[in-house]
């Protein structure tokens, strides 16, 4: 069997690798290159305890409040186009406790298997490692910590195991010297992991190539259609003509709707753009730090600290807006100490693929042989390998995992 995967991000390359496990011959095509989308400059957390549906009641309250504040970590353009309106209204309808709980119940079986899929990659020859660590969710007031404590309790109420410890500011600083005196309380969320996402996804690409897979950069796919017993993947003229295969997986992240909509996928995927940069610290950072109030995630990367945040609802290809980097830095500065902010570099913007219901799209479309894998929003790194594993079984062997039912792309 021969399968073409469109999109060389974490989700597409994981799909390709697990397809190879099933004996499938794969070609991955990307208009830009490996990890050219959201899969490069993200925070790199593999954090099943925090992997929850994005739409929930407090996000709606918070979102409405922050619309009027230009320093807010949420940005919605002043002129909202029809498509964005549809997305925002759809998203708002999912911001209820009942729908969040339903979404969380769907996430639970994925969260429980997510890290094992990384183990399979690492045991199977991918030359990169995930590091087990705590994530320290840290707060400038005790009241602010209530939100995450409630959320973690709700996650645990679905039956998912959550290991956490509540710490005073001093206890947290003893373990995490980078936390400033402003932090008065922290939640140590245990047994999570982190990776250097760009390096990891590139190692995954190398492993796919080493097993005989082909990865082609500079191939922009313009459409996909059924052709006889297989599928035809149409590309822009300079890519050397259309490609043929038995099946295709569309894993184009925030760009998914363009290729998937003609195949019955009605769910919108909106770019929720995030920004990141890295800085030097006095003591090497050891574990991820999370500042939910500022919506900022920090991760140790090659001896530096990556600082990531912001949710900007704009087009996935819009240019980087430097003002957002300033907002992130201004919000984070008081919460950390021992950081040399003058060493800022690796400035980056990338589009989270966000769906209105906060659930990814994984599975078959209305066109035989055309599958989608995307829309993971905040959690495509954590869930990318498992998505690839489950979808590969479906594409190659027709085994449809029960836990994928809520993520039906045709819902
Ligand atoms: C600031 C930030 C922090 C984040 N932190 C985390 C985190 O800590 N943990 C976590 O789990 N997730 C995190 N995420 C989310 C995560 O980055 C995404 O969910 C994930 O990278 C999506 O992967 P993907 O493979 O679906 O899409 P992408 O990585 O965006 O890949 C899509 C690819 O498709 C290609 N493409 C698009 N259209 C076409 C076309 N027509 N033809 C050919 N190729 C095409 C693009 O070039 C791109 O390479 C974060 C995101 C951001 C922005």
Summary?
Helices cover 32% and strands 29% of the residues.
Description:
By secondary structure, this protein is of the alpha/beta class. The protein is built from ten helices and 19 strands. The strands form three sheets. Strands 3, 4, 5, 6, 7, 13, 14, 15, 16 and 17 form a ten-stranded mixed β-sheet that branches. Strands 8-2-1-12-19-18 form a six-stranded mixed β-sheet. Strands 9-10-11 form a three-stranded antiparallel β-sheet, with no helix packed on it. Helix 1 links the parallel strand 1 and strand 2. Helix 1 packs parallel to helix 7, helix 1 runs parallel beside helix 10 and helix 4 crosses helix 10. The longest helix has 27 residues. The two termini are 28 Å apart. Bound molecules: flavin-adenine dinucleotide (FAD).
Question: Can you summarize the main beta sheet?
Answer: 10 strands, mixed
Strand content: 25-35%
Number of strands: 19
Please compute the radius of gyration using only Cα atoms: 21 Å
């Amino acid at each position: 069997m021969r399968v073409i995967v469109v999109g060389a991000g974490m989700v597409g390359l994981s799909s390709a690798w697990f397809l190879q496990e099933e004996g499938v011959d794969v070609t991955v095509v990307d208009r830009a290159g490996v990890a050219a989308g959201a899969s490069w400059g993200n925070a790199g957390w593999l954090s099943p305890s925090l992997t929850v549906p994005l739409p929930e009641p407090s996000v709606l309250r918070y979102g409405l409040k922050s619309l009027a504040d230009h320093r807010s970590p949420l940005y919605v353009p002043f002129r909202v186009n029809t498509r964005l309106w549809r997305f925002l209204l759809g998203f708002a309808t999912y911001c209820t406790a009942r729908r969040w709980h339903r979404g969380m119940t769907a996430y639970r079986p994925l969260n429980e298997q997510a890290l094992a899929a990384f183990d399979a990659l690492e045991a199977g020859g991918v030359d990169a490692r995930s590091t087990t660590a705590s994530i320290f969710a840290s707060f400038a007031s005790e009241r602010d910590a209530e939100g995450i404590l409630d959320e973690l309790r709700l996650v645990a109420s679905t039956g998912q195991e959550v290991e956490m410890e509540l710490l005073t500011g001093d206890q947290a600083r003893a373990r995490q010297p980078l936390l400033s005196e402003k932090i008065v309380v922290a939640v140590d969320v245990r047994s999570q992991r982190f990776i250097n996402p760009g390096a990891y996804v590139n190692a995954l690409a190398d492993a796919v190539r080493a097993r005989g897979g082909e990865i082609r950069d500079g191939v922009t796919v313009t459409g996909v259609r059924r052709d006889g017993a297989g599928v035809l993947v149409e590309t822009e003229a300079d890519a050397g003509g259309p490609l043929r295969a038995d099946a295709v997986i569309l894993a184009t992240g925030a760009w998914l709707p363009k290729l998937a909509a003609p195949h019955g996928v009605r769910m919108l995927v909106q770019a929720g753009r995030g920004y990141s940069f890295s800085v030097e610290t006095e003591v090497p950072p050891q574990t991820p730090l999370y500042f939910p109030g500022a919506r900022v995630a920090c991760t140790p990367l090659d001896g530096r600290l990556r600082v990531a945040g912001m949710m900007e609802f704009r087009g996935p290809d819009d240019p980087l807006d430097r003002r957002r980097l300033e907002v992130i830095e201004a919000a984070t500065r008081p919460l950390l100490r021992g950081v040399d902010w003058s060493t800022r570099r690796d400035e980056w913007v990338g589009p989270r693929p966000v769906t209105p219901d906060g659930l990814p799209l994984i599975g078959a479309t209305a066109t035989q042989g055309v599958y989608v894998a995307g829309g993971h929003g905040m959690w495509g790194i954590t869930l990318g390998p498992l998505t690839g594993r489950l979808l590969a079984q479906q594409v190659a062997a027709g085994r449809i995992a029960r836990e994928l039912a809520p993520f039906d792309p045709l819902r």
